Amino acid sequence: MDFHFNKPEGNDGVVDFHRFVLLFNHSFSSRIRFVGELELEHAFVEGLEQAGEVELEQAYLDFLLTRGFNVRAGMLLVPIGIINERHEPPVYNGVERPFVDTVIIPSTWFEAGAGVHGEVGRGLRYRAYVMAPLDATEFSADEGIRGGPQKGSEANVRNVAYTGRLEWVGTRNLTIGVSGWTDKSSFLLRRLGAGVRIGEADVRYRRGRLETRGQLAQVWIRDAGRLNDALARVTGVSPNIARSLRGFYGEAGYRVWADGPARDLVAFTRYENFDTQFRMPEGFLPLQQFDRDAWVSGITYYPDPDIAVKADYTLVRNRSGIIKSPNSVNIGLGWWF
Amino acid sequence: MKKSPLGLPAFVILLALACAAGAGALQPTERRVIRVTAERFTFTPSEIAVTAGEKIELRLTSDDTAHGFRIEGTDVNVTIPKRGGKELVVAFTAPGPGRYTFECNRMCGAGHDFMRGILVVRAPTDQPATR
Fold first, then answer.
1. pTM value?
2. What is the ipTM metric for this complex?
3. Nearest to B113 among A37, A62, A121 (CB)
4. Domain containing B39 — which CATH number?
5. Fewer Cβ atoms within 10 Å of its own Cβ: the N or the C terminal residue of chain B?
């Protein structure tokens, strides 16, 4: 559950029950399990996304065969990045998820698919899935591929996407991951060869009271120039989609009451750089307001390990001399049970 | 009386050897302590090697929420308290040789099914367990 107050500079404050999530599971046997996650976003559904969404984020069967090889099919979370598969509010700092995990990696990113997963040796995990591809006609200049997921809703699978993640979890307090995605996204514009490739690397490390994490993600969109031209012919306006998007962040947090009682207080700061116009196709100029960076600094108070009371100040800058990105004060309450 | 210059060192060496021998004699009845940390969505370590018949003491802690801990094919089935709770101590005797899956059996989030590990039990004649 995720409940926010956001006050962007120059705008009125907004209170939003951002996410209400129901997780449920069932074991048909010790080897066959069902996991489901149903999410209501923005508390209210009126038929338009701006008013809210009901999303079936997970609904899959897991066939648990061995530690090293298992099969999974249904609605799956795309295994990319730190946040997408691990998005409960108490597991990350900041009222909102990192920008990189929003406009570069479109979390929460879920899609219909099937694949294998497992763990070998002392802690090397893998996931490899075949999924429905992104829809290139929904890409944009400001949010990149965020509009692209078909969300398993009568998804076109004329071409499929391949995605996977390798993750080392065998060293206490250290997680290192790399992940990727490749697809052909222009199934609605069949003369084009537009497709998406994503490369991502991340690390999380904790030593005593200090917690750090970092992530780098880059998106490449093939045939982006012709995609812009094709969409401009339909809508009359070029969406100015980049041929490459890039984002990275580094975060440091300090636990004030580590190893003490259940309650805890974390002070953190995070630097993010995210550019959805990183490299443009020939003949297109980048929109500088979408080359952004941000400092997010604040605290997370845990009255219980499953409850997070958050406050932060988010300072956003961009390269445009005309359009300003608003800074914001954010207060949030997240819990999980 | 003239003291032997080797007397004190010899006594210390003999005492150390006696202690070492005593410790060795006690070893088979002692429990081997293995610390396991649970965190969404991993157990560390996720692979534990023991010897059949070995007495094991698992010390289980969580870095976040409460997690289940069940070893298939054994009686071990407990709930690890949330962060800040007491360390949970589970004593058991390693079963016969084989590979036993352990897992979180308390729904703990979107990646709950990833929380699995393996207890590798070797026969006493095999290479001794090192972890």
1. 0.86
2. 0.78
3. A62
4. 2.60.40.420
5. N
